[in-house]
Design a protein that fits this description.
Number of helices of chain B: 15
Oligomer: heterodimer
Strand content of chain A: under 5%
Helix content of chain A: over 70%
Distance between the termini of chain B: 32 Å
Number of strands of chain B: 0
Structural class of chain A: mainly alpha
Strand order of the largest sheet of chain A: 1-2
Shape of chain A: globular
Radius of gyration of chain B: 24 Å
Largest interface: A-B, 83 and 96 residues
Helix content of chain B: over 70%
Number of helices of chain A: 13
Distance between the termini of chain A: 40 Å
């Protein structure tokens, strides 16, 4: 018994600081949140069953936030997965061009969110350099561009500009790891460019694509930062995100309602994680 | 012939992509050394009489002087950002590195369950943790203080999971060999594994730093006073108030991140071309 304990002791000690932080700052309060989602009021709350959830599902603001998030994912995710692949494929074999391009991507990635917004303001804020053109294109008033339909495409643009670089690097690393001999062989066998792309390049990128997908989803959680800079606390309805809903309810102290949102998100994530693990196991077994 | 056209097209695509990436950087940099008068002519004037020009006629450091010394609101916000970023990243890395090591190399009861919980917490959007954070920070009595922002960001499990993925690439033989030679767990970690993992650790640290540098939600929700706010939240307000200093404000906010990148560049695995030339 003692021996077994001494064997797991070092590992436990190393894990302890992180585990303690996770339990105290994430898990325990998460439990509290789940409990509060079924009551009205906090410490002296009264149990109300699913009433909070029913109220939440009736809230038009919540519905708007959810449908906007889904719309954002449907449009932005394919774009941020495919667009960075293009330069990675094009510049892969040209060393000098690729080296300079890498540096430019870094510069763009490091341009902190708020600084990028300063540039965006130069273009699209009232009296901005391109405000009139963009307003004409979207049929809007140039002075209220941020509070119009234009906010949604702008949000997607900023998301791709800020986070596309990570995907580009992941793709470029994966491409550089494909053995050159494969391409030479294919060339000797007389396969064309499209055929090598379809049969060698793209299959080798599949594991990386899963990783970029994960990273892009994690980055999409941060998109509120840009949305907040575009529209403030009350943006145009096309970029009204879950975080706006939460901030506004937080200010109004609708805490129980927010607890429900937490629980719903937790359920979605657990289902997603389960699906990912299941798919992976399916793959492993086939190999 | 066909080849030549291909090469030309590729070069055009390259130039276009470079322009998209670098125009914001170039405009902000060039604007940061312009005088107020020139800025008015090139950027802020009425569209009818505006004449754009990228490079200033006369260079001046007045905007930088304002950002670094004169404007105490700006300097304070920048220092807040540095403080939040440094402390949060330090706590995060100091807990995540040993945890990732333990999860990969050590015997721990219930390891799979812990890993699964960490995975779920990593995937959980910040929005789901907002109420839990509020409860724990309130119970600890640190709501409204700097520590509310630091502690709500320090135990995010993303660094642990990414570091663990890096650690998995180390052959277990080297760890086992160290154990046979009589090295304890701590010595194996510090002397055998961490030196090999320098690049991975630097990468994760930089990712965390960039994340905290841009933090917004936590500051808006958990801080009372705008004097505590980091620059990521204050930059817009300050830029509107002092339009003549906008450019230097923006550049100086991104500059520290760029300097950290320069210092750690050698360790970043993503210098793709380096890998290819080897």
């Amino acid at each position: 018994m003692m021996k077994r304990f001494s064997r797991i002791l070092p590992g436990m000690l190393l894990l302890l600081p992180s585990l303690a932080g996770t339990v105290v700052f994430l898990l325990l309060p998460l439990g509290k949140t789940i409990a509060y989602s079924f009551s009205r009021g906090l410490e002296n709350g009264r149990f109300v069953g699913l009433q909070n959830y029913i109220d939440l599902s009736r809230s038009t603001a919540f519905r708007l936030a959810v449908s906007n998030s889904i719309r954002f994912y449907l449009i932005a995710l394919p774009l941020i997965l495919i667009l960075p692949l293009i330069p990675a494929l094009l510049f892969e074999r040209t060393h000098r061009l690729a080296a300079m391009f890498d540096r430019a991507v870094y510069a763009a990635m490091l341009l902190a969110g708020a600084s990028l917004m300063t540039f965006t303001d130069l273009l699209f804020a009232p009296n901005g350099m391109l405000a009139d053109e963009a307003a004409a294109l979207f049929g809007m008033d140039a002075a209220r561009l941020y509070q119009s339909e234009f906010a949604f495409p702008l949000l997607i643009l900023l998301y791709i500009y800020k986070y596309g670089g990570y995907n580009y690097f992941l793709y470029a690393i994966a491409l550089s790891r494909i053995p050159r001999e494969l391409y030479e062989q294919a060339h000797l066998d007389g396969s064309g460019m499209l055929q090598t792309l379809r049969c060698i390049t793209l299959p080798s990128l599949t594991p990386t694509a899963a990783l970029t997908m994960l990273l892009s989803v994690l980055h999409s959680y941060r998109i509120y930062r840009e949305a907040f800079l575009i529209g403030g606390y009350y943006p145009h309805e096309s970029i009204y995100l879950l975080q706006h809903f939460m901030s506004n309810n937080f200010v109004n102290m609708n805490y129980n309602r927010l607890c429900c949102v937490s629980v719903l998100l937790l359920i979605v994530v657990i289902l997603l994680a389960g699906a990912v693990i299941a798919v992976r196991q399916l793959f492993w077994r086939r190999k | 012939m066909m080849r030549k056209i291909c090469r030309m097209l590729r070069l055009c695509a390259w130039i276009l992509a470079m322009l998209i990436l670098l125009v914001p950087v170039a405009v902000l940099l060039a604007g940061s050394v312009m005088s107020e008068m020139e800025l008015n002519v090139y950027y802020f004037a009425n569209p009818a009489i505006r004449e754009f020009r990228l490079v200033p006629v006369r260079f001046t450091a007045s905007q930088w002087y304002a950002a670094l010394i004169e404007n105490t609101d700006y300097t304070r916000a920048l220092l807040n950002t540095v403080w939040f970023a440094a402390v949060t990243t330090a706590i995060s890395m100091l807990t995540a590195i040993p945890a990732a090591y333990a999860l990969v190399f050590c015997r721990i009861p219930g390891k799979k369950v812990i890993a699964a919980v960490y995975l779920i917490l990593m995937l959980l959007p910040y929005q789901a943790m907002e109420m839990p954070h509020y409860f724990i920070l309130r119970d600890l009595g640190i709501l409204g203080s700097d520590w509310a922002v630091v502690l709500s960001g320090a135990f995010d499990t993303f660094p642990v999971m990414i570091l663990a993925a890096f650690f998995l690439t180390i052959p277990t033989e080297s760890v086992e060999a160290a154990a046979i030679d009589g090295a304890g767990t701590f010595r194996t970690m510090v002397h055998v594994v961490l030196p090999q993992m320098r690049n991975g650790i630097v990468t994760v640290m930089l990712l965390k730093l960039i994340d905290i540098w841009n933090l917004t939600e936590q500051a808006i929700l958990f801080l009372d006073d705008t004097s505590q706010h980091p620059l990521s939240v204050m930059l817009r307000t300050l830029s509107v108030k002092h339009q003549e200093h906008t450019f230097a404000f923006a550049v100086l906010f991104a500059l520290p991140l760029y300097l950290v990148y320069r210092m750690t560049k050698e360790s970043l695995p993503i210098t793709v071309t380096q890998a290819k030339l080897k």
